[in-house]
Amino acid sequence: MKINDLELYQVGIGQADGGETAYSLLVRVSTTAGLEGWGESALHWRSGELSARREALLAVLAGRNVFDIEELHTLEALNTAPLRSAVEMALWDLIGRRLNQPMCNLWGGYFRRRVPVSVRLACRRPQQTAYVARERADQGFHTQTLTASGQPENDLAMLSAVREMVGDRVELRFDGRSHYNLDTACDLCSSQEFEGLQFLIDPLKVHDLYRLASLGRQTSVPLAAWRPISGPSEVMAAVRCGAAPYVVVDLDQVGGILPARACAAVAAAGGVNAILGGRPSVGIAAAALLHLAAAGSTFSGSNEIPSQQLRDTVLSDPPEASDGMMTVPQGPGLGVEVDRAKVERYQIA
Predict the structure, then answer these.
(1) Mean pLDDT, 10 residues at a time, over the chain (349 residues)?
(2) Residue 212 in 3-state DSSP?
(3) Phi, then psi, of 203 in degrees rounded to 5
(4) Residue 264, by phi and psi: left (phi above 0), alpha (psi -120 to 50) or beta?
(5) How many separate domains does the chain show?
(6) What is the pLDDT of residue 286?
(7) Which pLDDT score is estimated for 320?
(8) Integer Rg of the chain from CA
(9) Are residues 63 and 175 in the same domain?
């Protein structure tokens, strides 16, 4: 089954709660057998350059067998990790459709049919965030990620307001978004040592695993590395230096599903917890993350699969969250269908 065509779409969909718009590059790959597969990444290209980029990519991919996934990771034209991830995702979708199997069956089958998910709250004033947290808790999201503003006093006030509003119903994570220097991060951790934070993601400005390990030795607050993780070798480095008990694996950062599975395997071997994370998704990448989380026990915690906060998706029948869980799509490939009319509606001119 050979690749014979490729399309690129730049789309943007706003979030229902007023958070950031999800900008995504969609990749549609079609074959000589008449099948198509879809992929998504958080790349934000200008619409005017899509035609030239499509021609350059098609020149490299046309005539290649869709089953040669590993070869993709050697191509110079796909040296950008998010683009490589989107193209690889589309090929996995194609393979699943060709074999009439859900994607997770290509990686060993269903370990779970429903995946626990974490919802991320947009950065806003503390009391506003607290009300949104309560609303999400009422919807069944009992793992929530708060986003740092970079202003320590405001961030501490936000954590306090959310805890007061939701109590023990919600397990909180806090994404520092690489905002703090070491001294400020130490002070933040000191204030949270008896507050039950599940983990603190990327508190330090520098993406240095050894400095994160140094912070970890000074606090009992569990830490998580996200932005320093760009592949299995970084996970291995995190394990060796004891950087954090958690790593967050982002398909756009590691460059696709194959390296994401390798990251999870390294983490499991090193006794580190691997969690899936990602930027806002218009539905396609979210479906891929569900399949990835469903196919084994390595991504066992509440994974951040951020599509349920959008006003809409580009899918005809998107997976929905219920009681903090999302059901893995059952159809072949990604198990979801892309609505071309929605793609056109949300396409950025």
Answers:
(1) 96 76 93 96 92 96 96 94 98 97 95 92 88 91 93 95 94 96 96 95 96 96 97 98 97 97 97 93 94 91 76 89 90 97 93
(2) helix
(3) -75, -25
(4) alpha
(5) 2
(6) 93
(7) 84
(8) 20
(9) no
Amino acid of residue 258: L
- Cβ pair 279, 42 in contact under 8 A: yes
111 and 23 inside one domain? no
Tokens of 93: 């979708």
Residue labelled with tokens 């990602």: 278
**H helix intervals, the chain:** 50-61, 69-72, 81-99, 126-138, 152-166, 182-192, 209-216, 232-241, 251-254, 257-269, 284-294, 340-346
For residue 333, what is the DSSP state? B
319's tokens: 């997976």
- 66: containing domain: 3-100
Instruction: Clarify whether residues 188 and 283 are in a common domain.
Output: yes
Decide if 205 contacts 234 (C-beta within 8 A).
no
Burial (0-12, 13-18, 19+ Cβ within 10 Å), 341: exposed
Are residues 115 and 328 in contact, defined by beta-carbon separation less than 8 angstroms? yes
pLDDT of residue 348: 92
- DSSP line for 134-199: HHHHHTT--EEEEE--S-HHHHHHHHHHHHHHHGGG-EEEEE-TT-B-HHHHHHHHHHHTTTT-SE
Q: Is residue 207 part of a domain?
A: yes
Predicted local distance difference test score (pLDDT) of residue 19? 64
